[in-house]
Amino acid sequence: MESEKRSAEGGRAGAAGPVSEVGTIGVVGAGTMGAGIAQLACLQGAARTLLHDPIPEALARGLEGIEHQLERGVERQRWSAEEAAAARERLEPAERLEDLAACELVIEAAPESLELKHELYERLSGLVEASCVLATNTSSLPITAIAAAATHPERVVGMHFFNPAPVMRLVEVIAGDASGDEAVAVARATGGSASRASSRSTASAGSAAASAWARSS
User: Fold this and answer.
1) What is the domain range of residue 15?
2) Residue of 52, 118, 152, 160 with catalytic role
3) Which CATH number does the domain housing residue 65 bear?
């Protein structure tokens, strides 16, 4: 069985403040998981967030769901009306995959099909800059197998968010066999800053470990 390196860090979900220097984040897949990831990203306070789904109706539903959650967060005083308005300004629909070309990090939340992910990573490799980090939200497929379809497999890492992402705010960062240190560092920095000691361990794909997408509240 393939071994992959997992990095666990813990942090308290909470109030705002950028945790990464990534300027533009793309999210592929506007279902429950993808929309939740996009909501977390646009609330960070630094990153322009592009949400893509190949199905227009799914993209519209994802954006509507984020809008609903932003309003609900204001009502529950989880963030201010000003923070919600700023998050809306940072969130943009990406109707075509090509619209993600300027992203520095793309987080993929597509269905758990290796064939589908291979097709997606092949296309993304031809669209984004060579320095762009491609992260998969997979919970069951090996990162190394997914990265095999990418032109630069060293730029591919796992960022496994726990469902529901806006509530759990947990993300597991996983390095495949070819994942470079820089790509792992970008994923960790974007996912959250550690509030307790972090560790690196070896685990098989699909096993459990946790880290935090740190936002203050």
Assistant:
1) 3-204
2) 160
3) 3.40.50.720
